[in-house]
Amino acid sequence: MGPSGPPGPPGADAVSEYAYFVSFAEQTLLPDTNVDLIGPIGGSGNFALVNSGLEISVATSGTYAVWYSVTTTDRSQFGVTIDGSVWLFSVSASNSGAQTNGMSILNLQAGDLLGLRNISDATSVPRPTFATETEPTVNASLMIQKID
User: Fold this and answer.
1) What is the mean pLDDT of the chain?
2) DSSP-assigned beta bridge partners for residue 65
3) Which CATH number among 3.40.50.880, 3.40.50.2300, 2.60.40.10, 2.60.120.40 corresponds to the domain 18-146?
4) Residue 123 is inside which H or E element, if any?
5) Is the pLDDT of residue 132 over 90?
6) What is the mean predicted confidence (pLDDT) over 84-109?
7) Which residue of 3, 7, 77, 84 could cross-link 120, Cys pair, CB 3.0 to 4.6 Å?
8) What global pTM score does this model have?
9) Could you tell me where the beta strands, DSSP code E, fall in 15-132?
């Protein structure tokens, strides 16, 4: 075995762009209605809420992982939208009074708009506000992370 070579250049940060969005508010979601979010809470600053909190603007093209969770009082089905169209591979559903969780890998372009949409056929999906001792409870969240 020969001698070791010179050190290579430093690598890129493992996570360069990310953000977390939530909702505490009680909201009745009609079919094809987006969840109203607040944020970003922490993150890299490459995402912004637009359209009164109903969509998230993406600043940089790339491949992203998106995770979401929505708690409802009725059966529900949710999915992530890209520029208003539901991304089929992001759709998840749950039974009455349960939490709907989903995850997807998305190829996004700078300027794309993401939303978290009720796509169930129910007349409405109420998202409750939970009584807690001291703090409000998150009843919907979405996290996005650039992975490439």
Assistant:
1) 88
2) 105, 145
3) 2.60.120.40
4) none
5) no
6) 92
7) 77
8) 0.85
9) 18-23, 27-29, 33-34, 47-50, 55-58, 62-71, 76-82, 85-86, 92-94, 99-108, 113-118, 125-127
